[in-house]
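User: Please predict the structure of the protein below. I'd like the answer in structure-token form so I can feed it into my own downstream comparison script.

Assistant: Understood. Taking the following sequence of 249 residues as input:
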Amino acid sequence: MFSRIQEDIQCVFARDPAAQSVFEVITTYPGFHAVLIHRLSHGLWRRGLHWPARYVSFLGRWLTGIEIHPGARIGRRFFIDHGMGVVIGETAVIGDDCTLYHGVTLGGTSWNKGKRHPTLKNGVVIGAGAKVLGPIEIGEGARVGSNSVVVKPVPDGVTVVGIPAHIIDGKAKQEKARRDATAQKIGFDAYGATDMPDPIANAINLMLDHIHQMDKQIETMCQKLNDAGIQCGEKNMPQLDDCQIKDKT
């Protein structure tokens, strides 16, 4: 029992650089408190004491803002960072060394009895606000991006993002890097142009793609003119600062 508590404390230091002391973790970390309370409520649940288990779980939610059903099975060194708004359903199974951030839901998609919540293998990390729904399996070492909605199984060791979540492959990474470079070139902060299905974000991404194609065409035209003996001068693109942007808006 005490060895498990020591593991829970040490995993906080391993994954949160803000942790300063054991006393601080024990007294001020709601994720640590939620895990301790779940260990108690789960023990009662396994002994058939369902109402006491649910009541202990209810007290844990009231104290920490984290709702873990006493029937959920949680492995070793489980860390909930920040924690507020985390919901873990009855038939969820969480392996060792998993990390959840605030606002994560491990939920179901059916009212039928039986297995209806996700299974997380060892070393899974789920970003803030993500929803993992249904009796699906998240592979070992997988990463789920913030605010993603996962409704299909995820293979080992991959990263998924978006709604619905999809695997980030090499092509997607290259496309994002190209868009970021184009945005930086024109002085635009592309932080808001995420993979979310936001019509404004989609419009911005299309605009960046269009600008990239225009740059390529202009570069080709200048090369052809230079080859024909017609001087095509190159000018640096002016950078936009915050004051210019505010004046124009």
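That's the full token string. The chain has seven helices and 15 strands.
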